[in-house]
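Aim 2 progress update. The chain analyzed this quarter is reproduced below.
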Amino acid sequence: MRLRNILALLVVAFLVSCGGEDKKKPSYNSKTVKKAAVKKAPETKKATKKVVANDDPIDLNNKGIGPFKSVTLGAIDQSMADKGQKLFKTKCSSCHRTNRKFIGPNPTGILKRRSPEWVMNMIINPEEMVKKDPIAKQLLIKFNGSPMANQNLTEEETRAVLEYFRTLK
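Predicted structure tokens:
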């Protein structure tokens, strides 16, 4: 009886650790993932789209699907990056690690593979990105059908997380 209570508590703790006030999440089963894999990705400029040895596509033209259409990056804003680091630790670190692949991809060097708009749209709009964006669909398959949880960040918080990603080496 006591073991059952402990197991139940661990399951609840795990479910809560992904955080956020999630609205109804779409379910992803193997049929959904296979259908996503069959659809052909739209072509972008060949000069910036390539695949590196680990099958991680590089596409700096894809802006993703969501509110971010144009992001201008200047010098790193360290106070914004610090805020982003705190948000990452509280909202994202249960699935992402900055030093290795985990449940989700490692964000280190992400801006060498994706546009800033794509990264921010993936953070703020993961449900629609996984349904409609070809790279997000590939990542869903690569990471065993584990969809990214919507952490309900504001646009300002999402920008802070991007700024933190810029500091990762």
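Confidence is low (pLDDT under 50) at residues 20-54. The longest helix spans residues 2-17. These observations will guide the mutagenesis experiments scheduled for the next reporting period.
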